[in-house]
């Protein structure tokens, strides 16, 4: 456990000291500023515009952060050969992976809290008031980020940073559109429908995590929505981390 | 391996082929058998790409052998439990630029299961041994190459290792630091630790290694103690005589007088390689003939000359 926590702390330190979160903060400040500029054009829908823009930015920034973290967590370790230093120690590759994953979750968690606090601040400063729905947004967004982090580790273990990044973006989009893709698949000829259906069922159901958007706009979500999304993320992440471990265990470090 | 010492690290007919996609593989190691006994300092020599680093990575489980195998501290190569007692210093000081030297050592200690007071004590000891104290709180990105090399070595000492695998521990160091590292290697040996290290600095190797193993194109072409290797092939013997030169010496086949000082009654001779019986006949003959043996010793070739000769010799398949 010491090794896992130490690697998680190390991943967190890397992100903090390499000013990853600082850059993200500046990026967000600029974009939230833009949302304030847009508000006068929103014809009385200022709150909705600010909230939608803010939530979209939170989602996009989360994805960008995972892309950065994923490339650093594994790919850069391999490129810079710092991984030799770690894997030569008496740790299991599973511990290495778990440490990196926990570290990524910690970084994304901190970033998410920061972004939501910033969004809340902008809403409050604009006189739109705070919404408890932001807590639900935080929960669902964290689930989405946990899935993306797991995908990122599996992808960067198997492919180069560019290919892994492109695949992650594709998965993010496809995951959000998963129900539509399943419906589309059902309209195909039977053989193709079965194939496409099987393929699409492997996609992460990021649409479940999008429920946070409704909560932010005041919708009351049933407890099952929280439960199913949580359970899906847990099982999906476990399966992905096992896949990532399989890839990492087969890998050699010349 | 000297005597019947416990084998700390052993490779048995190990082969490693690097494959990239469908291309034909590159043979990094070809049937290497090598053992390192407890308390020995063994140097791996060879040109770049000879397979030295590959051998270390196989020991640590960072690579898997294509064929063959071996044992690390009584367990299979790369075994996690065995790695607890192994310190490793990679060829380049691959360290995290955003950590301080202290944090780097703490991270490596954590990964060895250390924490709290034992961890702090070990960091202090490793830093003291390498003279790292002034740089402990400096970020790695601000350290010079020499400091980085020292930090990497200190990292290798963090597990309080029985076996140290040091990949080029003497490269990138100024003369003063090199002396320090050589002293450290001697100290570590004196403490009973086992060392396997690579180096291209042959005079330094000659000073600190008990045995050398020479790799060429992935093959082990020579292995043994420095005494054995450097006096074995064509080394011959050197004899310093006092008094008159017995006829036996002058007439010995292949004997060559290198210098003589008749006024001091001294002469210096070089002999070709001699068997035990020939040595006895020569020395006995000198004494019987009234000669005085001032010194008689196997003529040692320098390690650089030996290495150069091995590297330029035709390879087995070329010779065939």
UniProtKB/TrEMBL annotation, chain A:
Superkingdom of this protein's organism = Bacteria
Keyword Cell wall biogenesis/degradation found = no
Residue spans crossing the bilayer:
20-38, 50-71, 101-125, 145-173, 223-248
Asked whether the keyword Membrane is assigned, the reply is yes
Q: Which UniProt keywords apply?
A: Membrane, Transmembrane, Transmembrane helix
Q: Which PANTHER family match?
A: ABC TRANSPORTER PERMEASE, SLL1107 PROTEIN
According to UniProt, the name of this protein is ABC transporter permease
Source organism of this protein record: Eiseniibacteriota bacterium
From TrEMBL, chain B:
Ranges in a coiled coil: none
Q: Which residues form the ABC transporter domain?
A: 12-242
**Top-level taxon in the UniProt lineage:** Bacteria
Keyword entries, A-Z: ATP-binding, Nucleotide-binding, Transport
Instruction: Tell me which CDD domains the record gives.
Output: ABC_DR_subfamily_A (cd03230)
Query: Which residue positions does the secretion signal occupy?
Result: none
Q: Which GO terms describe its molecular function?
A: ATP binding; ATP hydrolysis activity
Recorded protein name is ABC transporter ATP-binding protein
């Amino acid at each position: 456990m010491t090794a896992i926590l130490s690697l998680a702390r190390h991943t967190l330190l890397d992100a903090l000291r390499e000013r990853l979160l600082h850059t993200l903060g500046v990026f967000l400040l600029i974009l939230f500023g833009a949302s304030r500029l847009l508000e006068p054009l929103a014809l009385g829908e200022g709150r909705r515009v600010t909230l939608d823009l803010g939530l979209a930015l939170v989602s996009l920034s989360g994805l960008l952060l995972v892309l950065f973290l994923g490339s650093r967590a594994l790919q850069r370790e391999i490129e810079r050969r710092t991984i030799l230093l770690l894997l030569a120690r008496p740790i299991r590759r599973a511990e290495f992976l778990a440490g990196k994953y926990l570290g990524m979750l910690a970084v994304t968690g901190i970033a998410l809290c920061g972004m939501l606090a910033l969004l809340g601040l902008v809403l409050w400063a604009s006189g739109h008031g705070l919404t408890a729905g932001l807590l639900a947004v935080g929960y669902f967004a964290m689930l989405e980020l946990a899935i993306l982090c797991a995908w990122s580790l599996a992808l960067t273990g198997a492919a180069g940073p560019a290919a892994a990044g492109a695949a992650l973006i594709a998965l993010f989009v496809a995951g959000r559109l998963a129900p539509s893709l399943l419906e589309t698949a059902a309209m195909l000829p039977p053989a193709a429908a079965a194939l496409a259906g099987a393929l699409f069922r492997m996609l992460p159901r990021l649409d479940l995590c999008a429920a946070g958007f409704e909560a932010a706009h005041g919708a009351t979500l049933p407890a099952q929505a929280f439960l199913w999304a949580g359970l899906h993320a847990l099982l999906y992440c476990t399966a992905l981390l096992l896949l990532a471990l399989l890839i990492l265990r087969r890998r050699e470090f010349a | 391996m000297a005597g019947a010492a416990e084998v700390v690290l052993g490779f048995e007919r190990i082969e490693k082929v690097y494959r990239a996609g469908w291309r034909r593989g590159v043979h990094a190691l070809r049937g290497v058998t090598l053992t390192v006994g407890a308390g020995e300092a063994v140097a791996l020599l060879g040109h770049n790409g000879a397979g030295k680093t590959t051998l270390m990575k196989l020991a640590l489980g960072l690579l898997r052998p294509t064929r063959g195998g071996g044992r690390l501290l009584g367990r299979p190569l790369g075994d996690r439990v065995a790695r607890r007692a192994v310190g490793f210093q990679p060829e380049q000081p691959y360290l995290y630029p955003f950590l301080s030297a202290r944090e780097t050592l703490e991270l490596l200690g954590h990964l060895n299961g250390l924490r709290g007071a034992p961890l702090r004590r070990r960091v202090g000891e490793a830093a003291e041994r390498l003279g790292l104290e002034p740089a402990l709180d400096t970020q790695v990105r601000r350290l010079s190459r020499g400091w980085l090399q020292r930090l990497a070595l200190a990292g290798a000492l963090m597990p309080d290792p029985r076996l140290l695998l040091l990949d080029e521990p003497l490269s990138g160091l100024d003369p003063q630091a090199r002396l320090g590292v050589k002293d450290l290697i001697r100290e570590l040996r004196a403490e009973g630790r086992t060392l396997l290290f690579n180096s291209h600095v042959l005079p330094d190797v000659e000073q600190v290694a008990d045995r050398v193993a020479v790799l060429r194109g992935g093959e082990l072409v020579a292995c043994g103690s420095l005494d054995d290797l450097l006096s074995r092939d064509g080394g011959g013997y050197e004899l310093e005589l006092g008094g008159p030169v017995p006829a036996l010496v002058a007439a010995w086949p292949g004997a060559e007088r290198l210098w003589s000082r008749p006024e001091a009654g001294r002469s210096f001779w070089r002999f070709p390689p001699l068997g035990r019986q020939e040595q006895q006949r020569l020395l006995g003959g000198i004494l019987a003939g009234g000669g005085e043996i001032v010194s008689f010793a196997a003529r040692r070739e320098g390690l650089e000359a030996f290495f150069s000769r091995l590297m330029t010799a035709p390879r087995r398949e070329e010779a065939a």
